[in-house]
From TrEMBL:
Keywords, in A-Z order: Amino-acid biosynthesis, Branched-chain amino acid biosynthesis, Transferase
Organism encoding this protein: Rubellimicrobium roseum
Pathway of action: Amino-acid biosynthesis; L-isoleucine biosynthesis; L-isoleucine from 2-oxobutanoate: step 1/4; Amino-acid biosynthesis; L-valine biosynthesis; L-valine from pyruvate: step 1/4
UniProt protein name: Acetolactate synthase small subunit
Amino-acid biosynthesis as UniProt keyword: yes
Amino acid sequence: MALNIATGSTSHSAYDLRSTFSEVVEKHTLAVIVDNEPGVLARVIGLFSGRGYNIESLTVAETDHQGHLSRITIVTAGTPQIIDQIEAQLGRIVQVRAVHDLTAEGPAVERELALLKVVATGDHRVEALRLADIFRAKAVDSTLGSFVFEITGTPEKVDAFADLMRPLGLQEIARTGVAALSRGVKTA
């Protein structure tokens, strides 16, 4: 935007890109419906790595056995312009049937599954069980010196549980990545 000193008015200039492009980085969840064929996931991931985009979470599984379709759920971050670019470039891949930005399309339900191994004895063991109960995590394996907890929830809930388990003996964590669906009658 340029200010005309004589008139006090402002005008937009093609050289002032700050007025037209947002620098706000936002996290978005994308649902990508693809043909379940060899190499499709590699092409999708290649699009991200080739352009320097980061994938924060990635899940993929066949969702329509008869139609041979898979759903890839990708959590990524970028400015609105970068997210639009990612969507457009994904849409150009031949095996991609549909791309939905669940974040932009409205409310969505996001969940993640994690397994956490906690090595603890004595008071730490008791505290780990107490916190697992509060977070509704299940002990799916138990030995005299360790637990494996299963927790399902938002990524933030998983992060909070892991943060509390670290001082109690968290040794290992495995996360599935985000699975997401839009709320209501809309489908991706």
